[in-house]
Amino acid sequence: MQEGFVITEGVACAPAVIFKNDPPTVNIVHISPEDVEDEITLYQTTLERTHRLFLEEKNNVQSVVAREFLDVAILYLTDSYVKKLIEDRIRNELCNAESAVMRCYHDYINELISLNDPFVMHNEFEIHNLAETLVLELRKKKVTIPDITEDSILVCNNITPAQFLTMNTQHIKGVLLEDGNTQSHLAIVLRSSKIPSIFNVSNATKLIAPGTNVLMDAYANRIYLDPLDELIWQANRNAQKYHKVSDSSIDIIKPMMAQYKTSSDGERMRILANINSISEITKRAYLPSSGIGLFRTEFLFMNCSHEPDEEEQYQVYRRIMNMLPSNYEITFRTFDFNADKLPLYMSMSSAFS
Asked: Which CATH class is domain 23-138?
């Protein structure tokens, strides 16, 4: 699918969790003069409640960068200049608090941008999200944050740093965002968290269904849906080979083997491994193959001082099957003995071919 631009490098593969954070639609509603003070009181109490929520979030997060973001959000939230603009607009234009909040913050952003202040331009996105947060609080409506209890790739159209930090970020192995910019606070939070992230991925929430296995290679800026194991294995190896990433630091579903190899003329070929013993399966886990094409069962006898009975053989086969993914095939070859290849316990007189 179409890629955007990389915020944090890394490789991750996990099922997708979709989070749609659509901006609230705000209409101008005219109110009567008698309702003005009630509307201003509604705005003031909402402002105080939102301030308390931000302070609670600041006390609950461990990240220094996240606390700095919340400090900036609180700064703009409690700005006395904006507060007066909103209250005056409600009084003078006899409008509802929601529209006054959105229009005043919009005007405030434009006013600050005209000063060419890099700090303000850096925070434009956060100020806009702050206004939307206030509108939702005015409606006493909460955004439903997904409860992430398993390793996942978070796919969203828009998300604020505050919303992201309320999630279980331990299980967020990667982030795909339809919106965003490289200097936003969310980008800073993701970089500090070292979570692989790609922004400006067009229509991600529409193209990716919940639960879809997503491979994101944020070194190569590539995104794959329901990837073959070959792609997962290759992304893992490329990260280690070209970016000097240790195997233990990659948050990726590691298949034991990859399914295919491609010849120089483009033909895809299945690769199967030959195995002589159980110990070799662990070693073969790092090689590209789609299963075991030949397990030489005579070695069960060759390396045994007695004739293995049915139960012993069953336990060996069972252990092998449990070591492999359920969708990987294995072919057992039944006994290849001859006069020059006999088990230790068999005499030459009992040789057969």
From this structure: mainly alpha
